[in-house]
Amino acid sequence: MRIITRVKEMQAEISALKAQGRSIGFVPTMGFLHEGHITLLTRAKKENEILVLSIFVNPLQFGPGEDLDAYPRDFDRDRAAAENAGVDYIFYPSAEEMYPKPPSVKVTVQERTDVLCGASRSGHFDGVATVLTKLFHIIMPDRVYFGLKDAQQAAVVDGLIKDFHFPVEMVPVPTVREEDGLAKSSRNVYLDQGERRQAAHLYKSLQEAREAIEKGERNPETLIEMVRAHLNNHCEAAVDYVSIYSYPDLKPLRTLTGNVIIALAVKFSKARLIDNLILEVE
């Protein structure tokens, strides 16, 4: 496994691999890897000849009040995990390497960002789209892997790839969960014992909605109230939102039909957790 910190060196290495006809799988991350990331890496390793992992805490994704310096980092731990997962290259640039001067061109996401987490994080997905545009040009992957736990991000990336005609296939990977259903996340370490038990109800509330849909419920407001009530009854935390939209377009629905997402966010004392359920409704 090689660790590369310079853009030009990474591009030169990728160009050589492309000349050999090697297929490249890419997993972009901000590091502090957990089992969800490992699932992405394992899938990418099976489906490609070369596996590239990027670790870059992207400052453009952090808005006012979001502490960039407080974001968890542990490169030695990440390096060991990457090696165990069969990663061939870690691209580990500095902020100065990725953004050597103020940009002359800005990537702005026009759709799929004014709902869910994007509604309260102005500019966040512009930062995501900007760094991915850079990374796609540097890594030139055949396939890129994203977990569906952050389904809005996956939807934005889907739009970015299609709108800019990037020659890359996005592979969405189902959410990895604990035994009690809680979605794996680096933020879970901030939960105390009581909050950790309560957090299992995020997925349970979504399962309750799924069961209602299977029995014929198609009214989004009824399902939203059902999920919200479950969370309020079982969690001593603030429900940020419960929403239902078409997916991946993230448009409002009067009645459930086609591909839909039920998404939620809950604020515990030191952690804001998100979860979702994506399903096809006849």
Automatic annotation (TrEMBL):
<feature type="binding site">
    <location>
        <position position="176"/>
    </location>
    <ligand>
        <name>ATP</name>
    </ligand>
</feature>
<keyword id="KW-0547">Nucleotide-binding</keyword>
<dbReference type="InterPro" id="IPR004821">
    <property type="entry name" value="Cyt_trans-like"/>
</dbReference>
<keyword id="KW-0566">Pantothenate biosynthesis</keyword>
<feature type="binding site">
    <location>
        <position position="153"/>
    </location>
    <ligand>
        <name>(R)-pantoate</name>
    </ligand>
</feature>
<feature type="binding site">
    <location>
        <position position="61"/>
    </location>
    <ligand>
        <name>beta-alanine</name>
    </ligand>
</feature>
<feature type="active site" description="Proton donor">
    <location>
        <position position="37"/>
    </location>
</feature>
<feature type="binding site">
    <location>
        <position position="61"/>
    </location>
    <ligand>
        <name>(R)-pantoate</name>
    </ligand>
</feature>
<dbReference type="Pfam" id="PF02569">
    <property type="entry name" value="Pantoate_ligase"/>
</dbReference>
<dbReference type="InterPro" id="IPR003721">
    <property type="entry name" value="Pantoate_ligase"/>
</dbReference>
<feature type="binding site">
    <location>
        <begin position="184"/>
        <end position="187"/>
    </location>
    <ligand>
        <name>ATP</name>
    </ligand>
</feature>
<keyword id="KW-0963">Cytoplasm</keyword>
<dbReference type="InterPro" id="IPR014729">
    <property type="entry name" value="Rossmann-like_a/b/a_fold"/>
</dbReference>
<keyword id="KW-0067">ATP-binding</keyword>
<feature type="binding site">
    <location>
        <begin position="30"/>
        <end position="37"/>
    </location>
    <ligand>
        <name>ATP</name>
    </ligand>
</feature>
<comment type="function">
    <text>Catalyzes the condensation of pantoate with beta-alanine in an ATP-dependent reaction via a pantoyl-adenylate intermediate.</text>
</comment>
<dbReference type="GO" id="GO:0004592">
    <property type="term" value="F:pantoate-beta-alanine ligase activity"/>
</dbReference>
<comment type="similarity">
    <text>Belongs to the pantothenate synthetase family.</text>
</comment>
<protein>
    <recommendedName>
        <fullName>Pantothenate synthetase</fullName>
        <ecNumber>6.3.2.1</ecNumber>
    </recommendedName>
</protein>
<dbReference type="GO" id="GO:0015940">
    <property type="term" value="P:pantothenate biosynthetic process"/>
</dbReference>
<comment type="pathway">
    <text>Cofactor biosynthesis; (R)-pantothenate biosynthesis; (R)-pantothenate from (R)-pantoate and beta-alanine: step 1/1.</text>
</comment>
<dbReference type="GO" id="GO:0005829">
    <property type="term" value="C:cytosol"/>
</dbReference>
<keyword id="KW-0436">Ligase</keyword>
<dbReference type="GO" id="GO:0005524">
    <property type="term" value="F:ATP binding"/>
</dbReference>
<feature type="binding site">
    <location>
        <begin position="147"/>
        <end position="150"/>
    </location>
    <ligand>
        <name>ATP</name>
    </ligand>
</feature>
<dbReference type="InterPro" id="IPR042176">
    <property type="entry name" value="Pantoate_ligase_C"/>
</dbReference>
<comment type="subunit">
    <text>Homodimer.</text>
</comment>
